[in-house]
Amino acid sequence: MNTEQLNKVSTGKGFIAALDQSGGSTPKALKLYGVEESAYKNDAEMFDLVHAMRSRIVTSKAFDGRRVLGAILFEATMDRQIDGIDAATYLWERKQVVPFLKVDKGLAAEADGVQLMKPMPDLDALLARAVAKGIFGTKMRSVVNAANEKGIAAVLDQQFAVGQQILKAGLMPILEPEVSIGAADKAQAEALLKKGFIERLDALPAASKVMLKLTIPTVDGFYGELVSHPQVVRVVALSGGYARDEANARLARNPGIIASFSRALTEGLSAQQSDAEFDAALDAATESIYRASIT
């Protein structure tokens, strides 16, 4: 594991950009960017267009390691180039932004109030490719829709088991059990999640450190014990469907947690903008998320 990159994500001021929309979420991301579904005929054309959007973000002068600590990539982005250079290499060498990779294959059907990750039979091969490409860490998402003790335990057990597999490959796992912002008992679900996290983190060997990506909690400062836990490198927050201003306001009330926003980062960016307009919009978004992350 790259020590300079570890230091940056552990102690750096800034946030992690989530540029990892995959098959299911790409059409929506493109539509928000001003690209209608009529603009592409198949998945290959769709992914070309979303790669162009991501490349435009990453190559913008508004996007650099001063405010952006890391970026989470989709597998197809890792395998592509930006400005003629492998995406992960471009991020680190040109921008001083630490590259992460989304490794999950989507969500299973809901059971016990949660959605586990689908099986990942080819994960070891993907992790080996990620190491070869210069990726620092990984991200994988499950969803919690209700305060169901059995379901939340299953989500955490799966996240920690796969996290150990990722650590063995020499990569930093970001464990992401997202609590739905629409859950009727969101605060209770977060209480169960925190308790389960602390039990499992306490049981980890000293050398096994992880990052956490969590929904901004209902109670301000609720995840303080996770932020300060010795096995936790960093706690990052997803925007979870909140608009950027609300996500930033909520994040700023949770000291020690930094953003890892996706839709809230790209909000207001458009394929129709000139480069100057695009850079200005991205700069304003980046600055606001950076400010919310350093409180």
Please sum up the structure shown.
It contains twelve helices and eleven strands. It is an alpha/beta fold and 295 residues long. It is globular, with a radius of gyration of 18 Å.
Can you characterise this structure?
The chain has 295 residues and is an alpha/beta fold. It has a single domain, classed as Alpha-Beta Barrel (TIM Barrel), CATH 3.20.20. The protein is 44% helix and 18% strand. The chain is built from twelve helices and eleven strands. The chain has helices at 3-11, 26-32, 43-59, 75-78, 87-95, 123-132, 149-168, 186-202, 224-227, 244-252, 263-266, 275-293; strands at 15-19, 68-73, 81-82, 85-86, 98-102, 114-115, 137-144, 172-179, 210-215, 232-238, 257-259. Strands 1, 2, 5, 6, 7, 8, 9, 10 and 11 form a nine-stranded mixed β-sheet that branches. The chain has a two-stranded antiparallel sheet with strand order 3-4. Helix 8 (186-202) links the parallel strand 8 (172-179) and strand 9 (210-215). It is globular. The chain starts with a helix and ends with a helix. The model has no long low-confidence stretch (mean pLDDT 95).
